[in-house]
Structure formats: structure tokens, C-alpha cells
Write a structure and sequence with these properties.
Strand order of the largest sheet: 1-2-3-5-4-6-7
Number of helices: 7
Shape: globular
Radius of gyration: 17 Å
CATH architecture of the domain at 6-94 and 132-177: 3-Layer(aba) Sandwich
Distance between the termini: 47 Å
Helix content: 25-40%
Strand content: 15-25%
Number of strands: 7
Length: 206
């Protein structure tokens, strides 16, 4: 593998409740982590492809934590992609907005002491969001995408992908409601990180 490259090393069919996907396993020499792309339909050469770039959240995606909305966003993104003619969900291994699981759990403890999600990261000596979307851009280029409809509420994700050469023709909102446990977290994302969130209904009203 040459410098600053990714390699699609294996693909496998993954049937899910949201439809059939092909899971692409990517290795790289940038961060040396294993990143994934869940692909529905034929995407090579296509324009306006619905794409979700989802960062790993073990607590939300796997354990169903109510401290965030990550698990529900993952489910909703798979539904959107699965219902489209074609689409992609990229799963990036950058836990805790890039600070890792250990630091993320420490940040949770600070949040329980009264800090918000941004200030907790800063207290630990990290930025509010240390994620980078270069590898996601390289995966989209490897899959032969011409342009995408990005499923996101995050303006930083839009800006970063465009800086890496990805054409974004449209933003698809992905707001899944809130719970008592994650309302403060979502308000902080809206107020301090400029996320596009309405926060107009709770989970029970969906």
C-alpha cells in the first residue's frame, strides 16, 4: 500500500432488516484503523448518491445508550440508504469524536459532574471535535461516486468533505428526536457546534 492510500481488502454480502448491502473492509496507512463502507446497489459512476458518514459510537451503536442519539441515527441512516436506489453508509473508527473510547468515558464522568459535551473534551486537553473525514473522502473516491447527498446535521462534516474534493449536491437532515438523557447533549451540539437541529419533539412523540 503506497503512502496516504486506502485499500479495499475484502467485500461480503450483509443482509439486514433495511435491505441487502455489500460490506467493504478498508485498510489504510493514514491512521492504520479498519474503516467500513456499507454499500447498497450499484454506486460507481452515480451522482446524488445518499451517503451517511457515521463515526463509531460503541455506547450508542451497540449498547443503545441514551446519552447520545448515535444508535438511532445509525438505524435511520441505514433505513434511508436501504430505501434508495443506491447509497452508502461509511463507518469510521473514530470513537468519541476522535478522542477514543477511554477518553470518551472520562468525558462522560465530567458531564455527570456538570460539564457539557464540549467543555468535557476541552477539560481533558482535547478539541471539541477531533474527527477527520479524509478517509471517508478517499473511500467515496474509491467507490467511484460523482456526487453525494450527505445525510448529516453537522456543518463541519460538509466543509471537510468538500475540502477533500467531494461534491455535495444536497444535505439530508437526520434528526431522530430526543430523550431526557440526551437533550442537553443535543442542545450543546446545536449551540456550540452549530449543528442543524430543531429539537422540536421528544422520542415519545415520533
Amino acid at each position: 500500500m503506497s503512502q496516504n492510500k486506502i485499500q479495499n481488502t475484502v467485500k461480503a454480502r450483509i443482509p439486514t432488516e433495511y435491505g441487502d448491502f455489500i460490506l467493504h473492509y478498508y485498510e489504510n496507512d493514514i491512521d492504520h484503523k479498519e474503516h467500513l463502507a456499507l454499500v447498497h446497489g450499484e454506486v460507481s459512476g452515480q451522482s446524488d448518491v445518499p451517503v451517511r458518514v457515521h463515526s463509531e459510537c460503541l455506547t450508542g451503536d451497540v449498547f443503545g445508550s441514551h446519552r447520545c442519539d448515535c444508535g438511532e441515527q445509525l438505524d435511520e441512516a441505514m433505513r434511508i440508504v436501504g430505501q434508495a436506489r443506491c447509497g452508502i453508509l461509511i463507518y469510521l473508527r473514530q470513537e468519541g469524536r476522535g478522542i477514543g473510547l477511554f477518553k470518551k468515558l472520562q468525558a462522560y464522568n465530567l458531564q455527570d459532574e456538570g460539564l457539557d459535551t464540549v467543555d468535557a473534551n476541552l477539560k481533558l486537553g482535547h478539541q471539541a471535535d477531533e474527527r477527520d473525514y479524509r478517509i471517508a473522502a478517499l473511500i467515496l473516491q474509491d467507490l467511484g461516486i460523482k456526487s453525494i447527498q450527505l445525510i448529516t446535521n453537522n456543518p463541519k462534516k460538509i466543509k471537510d468533505l468538500e475540502q477533500y474534493g467531494i461534491e455535495i449536491s444536497q444535505r439530508i437532515p437526520i434528526e431522530v428526536g430526543h430523550t431526557h438523557e440526551n437533550l442537553s447533549y443535543l442542545k450543546t451540539k446545536a449551540e456550540k457546534m452549530a449543528h442543524f437541529l430543531l429539537l422540536g419533539k421528544n422520542k415519545a412523540q415520533k
